[in-house]
Amino acid sequence: MKIGVVGLGTVGFGVVEILTQQKERLEKQIGEEVTVKYGCSLDEVTLPEGIIYTQDFNDVINDDEVDVVVELIGGTTIAKKIIIEALKKGKNVVTANKALIAHDGQEIFETAAKHHAKFYYEASVGGGIPVVVPAKEDLIANEIEKIEGILNGTTNFILTLMETDNLDFDEALTIADGLGYVEADASLDLDGIDAAHKIQILAMNAFEIFFDFDKIKATGIRSVTKKDMDYAKKLGYRIKLIAQAKKIENGYGIDVSPTLISLKDMVANVNQAYNVVEITCNYLENVLFYGKGAGRYVTASAVVSDIMKTHQQDMWKHDYQYVENIYPITKSKYYVRCDHSLDIDYETYFSQDHDHIYITNQIELNDLLEQLQGETYNLFKVRG
Amino acid sequence: MKIGVVGLGTVGFGVVEILTQQKERLEKQIGEEVTVKYGCSLDEVTLPEGIIYTQDFNDVINDDEVDVVVELIGGTTIAKKIIIEALKKGKNVVTANKALIAHDGQEIFETAAKHHAKFYYEASVGGGIPVVVPAKEDLIANEIEKIEGILNGTTNFILTLMETDNLDFDEALTIADGLGYVEADASLDLDGIDAAHKIQILAMNAFEIFFDFDKIKATGIRSVTKKDMDYAKKLGYRIKLIAQAKKIENGYGIDVSPTLISLKDMVANVNQAYNVVEITCNYLENVLFYGKGAGRYVTASAVVSDIMKTHQQDMWKHDYQYVENIYPITKSKYYVRCDHSLDIDYETYFSQDHDHIYITNQIELNDLLEQLQGETYNLFKVRG
Which residue from A125, A248, A299, B230 could staple onto A198, CB 3.0 to 4.6 Å apart? Predict the structure, then answer.
């Protein structure tokens, strides 16, 4: 496969890097050559050897050898032109462009179908978290009833900061901005528009429908106050910006709004810039996908899996190597409860009744067992 | 596609039901006919009309029309014979049989490769949670470094019960047994053997290796006491049965052992019979898959997605219908903070300083807003 990457910003350059670094492994996986032929960008960049640099996307689209065009410039004007033209030439297209799919998805999908080209966009929702593809392929047995998610990392970061550092919205926003978490057009994140783009994409596939983006009512987090957060916590809840889509009696209910979630709920414990998508369906009940929602390599990882998917051979040949060197994982932090105090490095220690309780530092199990000879004890690993 | 389902117990019959109920939708998705031709089982069962019942699996394997054989009888003797013979005839095979793959995976995979047949087993790990396929296909860009998971629902149910009901292991086991959570051979669950089967399957694919099952050291939960659970909690941890596999300096570290997990960690909050798999890799960092690990339709859901996968056409045609009836989700529980008390049905109410705070019962937003006319208030949805 010969790939043209159009847009060499954070994610685009990450894609080129991964395809270069993992070339050999990816070629083994899919059983054919994987070559980046073009990198296209208006800003001049230094590309790995062998990749042609161009400022003109027509060079990529008009090259018959290129069969996968990766659009990572963003926006809804030139990006759309590139995608439509590439599809019309029968080239497969991969993108992370959620705004474009939310607004012009139907036209793009129909162009792809008409020209028998593939159009994949896993990276448009949840960064690198596999969710667009699994929701369609792996849940195929199910009728999807509801999708709920924290789909915007920036607002989740701000909400987490408000709680942990006891800040009001404006204060947390200033800090998040200073840390580079807020985009030039802050409204996309703060007013729930980015989350709305993403829930539209998930809803289209889940319910097999097209609909206009402006039907989604999006409310952002500007109205969330520290005071309400505190009251919510007192009641056992945390406030999150939730994007939701579900079947309702007379159609489909889809919106984005700040929502109280019980602290006992997994979704309430998704903090910082993490994303989560929970899907409820008729057979599988509820299933949840969680991970980092943004970042150069995180998002590039999803783009690369889409690129491979355009040429999906059977990846399940299992031509693995037989190995002998399998061991228990004995180096760990340990929890120890014993009768006497120990001569070890530890993270935490306390004693209660006749028990001595340790959380050790990282230690080899044998070194620890040596200390415990002749003692009565109980011992478990500690994660981390 | 013509399917033969061998084994009509809990999961097998669930597969037949799903394929019957969802026939039309599945056929649209993959663009071809989906027919269950045989149901095979020693115990006589009543099958939906049109499906041939047989007690002899040879009827299924020897029918040239059948191109997907679904093995759901379990065990490692007859099940293996059926799978190997079906693969040798070039039929695709789908199974949920983790013990068999853990013990004889290499032989089965090699037979499948030799005869150009597909062999899928998503349901063998994590019940219906998509994790075997996503870990391989959707994370293809990544080198997987570590896999950790709660892979056995029975032991997680017992550990949760010990904590919530303040029971010791034996007491919780008795209750779990009474509720039907414990299998005839309790040791498979309690001694971590089932979890070891599953981590072997995940490790094989993640690291592209084969290895002998008996290399995995499995420790179950019999040594977990209520006392240690209480001490762990005091330190901010919860005890879970964790299956782990990672690259280590001189090979691969793989084991199953009770492990303390920080309560701040998502994995510590996986309770009851839920399963979770967390995968750490070089680009995507950490990604987590969570859901029900067992149950008739839960597991059958994964089996059906594998069956569809054997005939994977492009499911991404996006031939969706355009719809107008998209609405915000206005019927919800609400959090309201306002100046005066309200005349509404509520779940929780308290007042503090000059604030009145409600968690309402389910209510239409307009009905609530009517009550709030002229008031100063803040309002958010409440999940659930």
Answer: A125
Of B140, B204, B253, the CB nearest to A328: B253
**What is the residue range of B264's domain?**
132-292
Domain identity same for B115 and B136: no
Q: What pLDDT, on a 0 to 100 scale, did the predictor assign at position A239?
A: 96
pLDDT at B313 over 70: no
Q: State the Cα–Cα distance between residues B38 and B96, nearest whole angstrom.
A: 18
B381 SS3 class: strand
pLDDT at A316: 72
B120 and B158 in a common domain: no
Helix (H) or strand (E) segment spanning residue B10: helix B10-21
Enumerate residue ranges in chain A where pLDDT < 50. Answer: none
Q: Is B369 on the interface with A (CB under 8 A)?
A: no
Task: Answer whether A357 sits within 8 Å of B231, measured CB to CB.
Answer: yes
The verdict on residue A325 lying in a domain is: no
Query: Residues of A marked as binding for L-homoserine?
Result: 183
| Nearest-by-CA chain B residue for A249 | B325
Compute the average pLDDT of residues B41-58.
96
- Most B-contacting residue of A311, A322, A326 (CB-CB within 10 A), to test interface: A326
Is residue A213 situated within a structural domain? yes
Nearest CA in chain B to A206: B320
Q: Looking at the structure, do residues B268 and B341 belong to the same domain, yes or no?
A: no
Last residue of a domain, one of B95, B124, B153: B124
Which pLDDT score, from 0 to 100, does residue B100 have? 97
CATH number of the domain encompassing residue A12: 3.40.50.720
Do B259 and A382 count as a contact with CB atoms less than 8 A apart?
yes
**What are the pLDDT digits (tens) for A5-33?**
999 999 999 999 999 999 999 998 888 99
Is B382's Cβ below 8 Å from some Cβ in A? Answer: yes
Q: Which of A266, A292, A318 is the last residue of a domain?
A: A292
ipTM for the complex? Answer: 0.93
| pLDDT at position B324 | 87
CA dihedral B317, B319, B325, B326 (to 10 degrees): 10
**A141 burial via Cβ count (<10 Å: 0-12, 13-18, 19+):** buried
A37, A91, A118, A198: the catalytic one is A198
B352 touches chain A (CB under 8 A): yes
The shortest CB-CB distance from B326 to any of A251, A348, A352 is to A251
Same domain, B151 and B101: no
Contact call for A328 and B217, based on CB within 8 A: yes
CB contact under 8 A, A329 and B253: yes
Residue B342's φ and ψ, nearest 5 degrees, are -115, 155
CA distance B66 to B178: 41
In a domain, B164, yes or no: yes
Active site residues of B: 198
Q: Which residue in the block uniquely carries the two structure tokens 């060499």?
A: A8
Residue of A nearest to B287 (CA): A291
User: Quick one: B208 and B108 in the same domain?
Assistant: no
Distance of residue B60 Cα from the nearest chain A Cα, in angstroms: 23
Q: With beta carbons under 8 A apart, name residues in chain B contacting A29.
A: 140
Residue A382: which of B128, B265, B246 has the closest Cα? B265
B228-241 CB burial, b ≥16 within 10 A, e <16: bbebbeebebbbbb
Q: Is residue B176 part of a domain?
A: yes
B171 and B197, same domain (yes or no): yes
CATH number of A148's domain: 3.30.360.10
Q: Are strands A119-120 and A92-95 parallel, antiparallel or unpaired?
A: parallel
Q: Is B216 on the interface with A (CB under 8 A)?
A: yes
CA distance A301 to chain B (A): 5
| pLDDT for the residue numbered A184 | 84
Residue B344 near residue B315, CB atoms below 8 Å: no
pLDDT at residue A314, as a whole number: 62
Q: Is A300 on the interface with B (CB under 8 A)?
A: yes
3-state SS class at A106: helix
pLDDT at B266 over 70: yes
Q: State whether A288 and A368 are in the same domain.
A: no
Residue B294 — pLDDT band, cuts 50, 70, 90?
confident
How many domains does the structure of chain A reveal?
A: 3
Residues of B annotated as binding site? 98, 183
